[in-house]
Automatic annotation (TrEMBL):
This is Nucleoside 2-deoxyribosyltransferase. InterPro entries: 2'-dNMP_N-hydrolase (IPR051239), Nucleoside_deoxyribTrfase (IPR007710). Coiled coil: none annotated. It comes from the Bacteria. It comes from Roseomonas fluvialis.
Amino acid sequence: MRVYLAGPEVFLPDALEVAAAKKRVCAAHGLEGVFPLDPPPAAPPAEMPYWMRIYLGNEAHIRSCQALIANLTPFRGPSADVGTVYELGFMRALGRPVAGYSTAAADFLARTRGFLGAAARPRADGGFEDAESMGLEDFGLGDNLMIDGGIAAAGGAFERHDAAGDRWRDLAAFERCCARIARG
């Protein structure tokens, strides 16, 4: 089974080495990992802007896969990378299996409060709000309820694990996702 490996690792200086490690974990579970930087099934026209060729290539990868595993580790803030979340939703809309993982085990509210600091203030109803009086989501989930909900509705799992070291290279939760996808 081909599995799209969504996540912000594409921005790492050693992205291909991280991809190779993830592909080895996939292979150990009988899966074929497909990384966003792999050559796409069909090359988009060269006259298109570079960013559009990346988008079309990733969309082609997703369509060519039977499942997706998303790295939902907080990226540049308290939440997952927005591009990864888009890819997860795209695969979910295709009706295919999805799973997600994070190397930050704390729930979304705790991370958001930590990110906002003093700007996260208590409300009279017991919840929290930001400096613009917008409520902070508090469901004890790994990220926004639409992310956790989409994974759960697809029968997948959102694995959370505090990384012992480098959060982008700790593959313990990723491996649990591979095992789950492989079991079907």
